[in-house]
Amino acid sequence: xxxxxxxxxxxxxxxxxxxxxxxxxxxxxxxxxxxxxxxxxxxxxxxxxxxxxxxxxxxxxxxxxxxxxxxxxxxxxxxxxxxxxxxxxxxxxxxxxxxxxxxxxxxxxxxxxxxxxxxxxxxxxxxxxxxxxxxxxxxxxxxxxxxxxxxxxxxxxxxxxxxxxxxxxxxxxxxxxxxxxxxxxxxxxxxxxxxxxxxxxxxxxxxxxxxxxxxxxxxxxxxxxxxxxxxxxxxxxxxxxxxxxxxxxxxxxxxxxxxxxxxxxxxxxxxxxxxxxxxxxxxxxxxxxxxxxxxxxxxxxxxxxxxxxxxxxxxxxxxxxxxxx
Length: 325
Ligand code: ACO
What we know:
Elements: E1 3-12, E2 17-19, H1 20-24, H2 31-38, E3 42-44, H3 51-65, E4 75-79, H4 90-98, E5 104-108, H5 114-128, E6 133-141, H6 151-154, E7 159-169, E8 175-182, H7 184-190, E9 191-192, E10 214-215, H8 217-239, E11 248-251, H9 256-266, H10 277-280, H11 287-297, E12 306-313, E13 317-324
Helix pairs in contact: 3-4, 8-9
Bound molecules: acetyl coenzyme *A (ACO).
């Protein structure tokens, strides 16, 4: 049985910083409310770069950090819920820009769990086929599906991209335990965006209602504080591992209060969780790879460390992986 290792990361976020104070000029909110209820201080909002461009720049960073060239990549998966176009896929556009001529490429849609879903998909494909190296990217320009007049959602989200490179290895498998789930019924009522209209000569529907993100915040909050600890416990149990041996838990960055409640339920200190939601807000599928890339950049993780990735979001979906770097 082939093993797969994650060998490096990269990330890129737009330079434009939008602070809570900036949002006070747009909707009826306050810096104090946003920090107290979410932990978010600022987020990056694109001034024109689309999802393809963010994904491409994160991928370039990952390739550079791993000393690899575009020809070394055999598979590209992009997790996004905010593509620039329906077709070509973001992954195909990135493949073309990078010149990864050997790579198959496709997008995967699982909202904030999308990067973890993509890691599981890429590692399975590397084990099952003759592909040797995969580039997995989470990239979002959520700013284009945000209703900027809705204070209950527009303060939460941001734009950005993160990337990881996985390769087949003769060593033990770096993906130690995994889990992934969905609840489509609950997803219909709690988190919806990007609805397309049916408007043909044969059938017409009423105007699509949910082009922009709508969210039942309390429902999503309750869901998140339940699944986040359960992902961690399931991964540890499946791996026969104890939490003391885990260097970091890298959760989806949605709200500091969700992370804090999860750490209370797991009886671990808050600093076991890596948190950067204060700087970027919720970047959906990009949040976990941006956090991983920052951890590596800051020298906080190294080869051999065990890390838990835990994500939850639209769909509803939730997923996790216990990895050894
Ligand atoms: N500024 C000021 N007041 C606000 C704002 C704002 N930006 N937004 C809401 N309020 C008000 C509400 O109108 C409400 O006022 P009322 O009591 O007069 O009716 C009050 O604040 C409390 O509102 P709640 O919704 O109860 O606030 P809560 O403490 O639940 O926090 C929040 C809201 C931050 C959205 C929280 O529910 C949350 O984080 N939920 C999870 C969201 C999430 O993680 N979503 C992403 C999932 S991932 C994905 O796939 C996209």
